[in-house]
Amino acid sequence: MATRKVTLSLDSGALEFAERAAKAHGISVSSWLSKAARREAVRTGYTPQRAPVEPSAESDEAELTAAEKDLRAQG
Questions:
Q1: DSSP 8-state class, residue 8
Q2: CB 21 within 8 A of CB 31
Q3: What pLDDT sits at residue 56?
Q4: What are the backbone angles phi and psi of residue 9, rounded to the nearest 5°?
Q5: Region (Disordered): which ranges (predicted)?
Q6: Full-prediction pTM beyond 0.70?
Q7: How far apart are CA 25 and CA 37, in angstroms?
Q8: Rounded-to-integer distance, Cα 55 and Cα 58, Å
Q9: In sequence order, what DSSP letters do the residues of 16-74 get, joined into one string?
Q10: Mean of pLDDT over the chain
């Protein structure tokens, strides 16, 4: 999975919890926070949205279908 470097501000208590939990699981704080954020998003009802199909992809598909139809008509 791709990662992005970001700057976050956490209260000192939350950071201490994250550091201790990450150490207990043998992972980095960044990895632990990433997993925690994902779990919390899902827990609170977030569902990933499908990426919209770009119009150019739809037109490419239509052009391909038309070209195949023309080829079949030509024999």
A1: -
A2: no
A3: 63
A4: -115, 125
A5: 43-75
A6: no
A7: 16
A8: 5
A9: HHHHHHHHHHTS-HHHHHHHHHHHHHHHTT--PPPPPPPHHHHHHHHHHHHHHHHHHHH
A10: 87
